[in-house]
Write a structure and sequence with these properties.
Urease, subunit C, domain 1; nine-stranded mixed β-sheet; alpha/beta; TIM Barrel; 3 domains; 18 helices; about 550 residues; Diaminopimelate Epimerase, Chain A, domain 1
């Protein structure tokens, strides 16, 4: 009897060992760029409970596993879920609700769009965003007189494309309490003949922001959902939102918890007294979809509006140096406070003066044993002798399409010598051994394929210039994909859970219709996303 039972046990064991392991999802028939340490390419992988269980050859995985669902990629390319390391998800949503002024070729066209928009909407406060005087024949800031004529009783506030300047009419200035005597520390209120022209740059913009009527909860939810829809369609699975208040962070968290938002968000907390008092005392907040552990600080403004802080005067405007929004002594105090709370400091720095100030402030806190991973957002114009300061603790977080958008006028702003340290992505990478890549949408377009193309080819969407803009600062395709996946994840302290297709990581991945690692360069910006997966669930399907 015992012998039979023993034999039965052996048979049972052998039977069990031949049974396939049940799992949730098999992804097969793909060219899979795992972005692991060896940058290996696989054919298939297994997902269970939202995480990757095994990666390898299709026939081996099909022999071992029985999946409830199968995703047949039909020979398409799969990359880890794309991460936008610097963007504005909530602002994109707001932008989708207001007047779009992108692509306007003159101030007259701006006015025409405002008139048409208001006829359709009949709003009590008109908001718009996207104008850029650098795209006009007359490359000068507009003034408010024509807006005053058209809308004498309705406030109008039109934000420049970079978000660092407003054109406001007299009614909007009146509501904001702005006049010729208003304090403009940390920015500028442009005055002509003793009166504001309507152009408000950087810090004083907050006066207008506070005077704009509050949005309803439904409006904010709609904005977030519409922004997410755009991002998922373009293959983005994680967004680093560069500057959010507590209210919106908590709203994102609640929508993620109820399943109304799928996207993972790395939230940089806006540097306000209220936000810092709350989050630095509360400590890091981490769920599977939300990570709150960084503070977003503005060192200076933008180059396009001449708000970037420069060490020497602007090449195209004498005796003008831009402005520090956060002076050096405040940067140092903030760095110390943020470090003691165990948070990451992510600082917007465009001009060479701002970048030097931020580097110096960071170095007062960072030591050889630190694992702070503090970031410099944009690192746009850096004095070449300071580029060696970048490291895994001072990470460059850049947006490649800025280079191809700004190349038409950037050298006019900074001159032939300073441009050598501008948009210097390859040089920054060599120093830091990594670089985090994003878009800064809605300033630039959301599409990560444009990011990939601009990083590699250093050309705009018209394939200009031939040979690429300062192509020696271009990145390889492998470096670029890492910058949009594993290096971006590292900059978020999330490299153990995302950024590559490896065992134990979230099953976040993007299915592309063409292989961006091998196709001709000029085809990259045209590549479409076939499907987007977060946590092993399909959240976008082109079909």
């Amino acid at each position: 009897m015992k012998k039979i039972l023993f034999v039965g046990a052996i048979i049972s064991i052998l039977s069990c060992s031949s049974k396939k392991i049940k799992t949730d999802l098999l992804v097969k028939n793909a060219t899979i760029y795992t972005v692991n340490k060896g940058f290996d390419i696989a054919e298939a992988f297994i997902v269970n409970n939202g995480k990757i269980v095994e990666v390898g050859l299709q026939k081996d995985l099909m022999a071992r596993y029985k999946a409830t669902k199968t995703f047949n990629a039909e020979g398409k390319t799969i990359v880890p879920g794309l991460i936008d390391a610097h963007a504005h998800l909530y602002n994109l949503g707001l932008f989708l609700q207001i007047l779009d002024l992108k692509g306007t070729k003159s101030f007259e066209e701006v006015l025409e769009r405002v008139v048409i928009f208001q006829k359709d909407k009949n709003l009590t406060y008109i908001e718009g965003r996207g104008w850029d005087q650098n795209d006009w024949d007359v490359k000068e800031f507009p003034t408010k007189e024509k807006l005053d004529e058209l809308f004498p009783d309705t406030p109008v506030a039109l934000k420049r494309i970079d978000g660092h300047a407003y054109l406001a009419n007299s009614k909007a200035l009146e509501l904001a309490g702005i006049n010729a005597d208003t304090d403009a520390a940390g920015g500028e209120i442009i005055i002509k003949n003793g009166n504001p022209t309507g152009i408000i740059i950087d810090s004083p913009m907050n006066l207008i922001n506070k005077s704009i009527p509050n949005y309803s909860l439904d409006y904010k939810i709609k904005a977030l959902k519409e922004a997410e829809k755009v991002c998922l369609k373009l293959g983005l699975t994680t967004i680093d939102d560069a500057g959010l208040d507590r209210e919106i962070i908590e709203l994102i968290d609640s929508l993620q918890q109820t399943g109304d938002l799928s996207t993972r968000v790395y939230a940089m907390v806006s540097n306000s007294k209220e936000n810092l008092n709350y989050y630095l005392q509360k400590g890091v907040t981490k769920t599977n979809r939300l990570n709150v552990r960084s503070i977003k600080v503005y060192a200076d403004g933008a180059l396009g509006s001449r708000g970037a802080a420069m060490r020497d005067e602007y090449s195209d405007q004498s005796r003008h140096y831009g402005a520090m929004i956060t002076p050096m002594d405040q940067l140092v105090a903030l760095a110390d406070k943020i470090a003691k709370a165990g948070f990451q400091m992510n600082t917007h720095a465009i001009g060479d003066s701002a970048n030097v100030s931020v580097i110096r402030a960071y170095k007062k806190v960072i030591n050889d044993t630190s694992d702070l991973r503090w970031r410099i957002e944009h690192a746009q114009v850096v004095t070449p002798s300071y580029i060696d300061s970048f490291s895994k603790n001072i990470i460059p977080s850049v947006q490649p399409t800025h280079a191809t958008s700004d190349m038409y006028w950037a050298e006019d702003r900074v001159g032939a010598e300073r441009i050598k340290g501008a948009y210097a992505y390859k040089t920054l990478l060599k120093s830091a051994n990594m670089i985090a890549l994003g878009t800064d949408f809605p300033i630039e377009k959301v599409n990560p394929m444009h990011t990939f193309y601009a990083a590699v080819a250093r050309k705009d969407l018209d394939n200009y210039p031939e040979g690429g803009y300062r192509i020696d600062e271009g990145l390889t395709r492998e470096e670029t994909l890492k910058g949009m996946t594993i290096w971006a994840a590292y900059s978020n302290f999330e490299e153990d859970e995302k950024g590559s297709i490896e065992i134990g990581k979230f099953a976040d991945f993007t299915v592309l219709e063409k292989d961006i690692m091998t196709i001709p360069e000029d085809e990259i910006p045209l590549v479409k996303v076939s499907a987007t997966f977060i946590n092993g669930e399909m959240v976008f399907n082109k079909k």
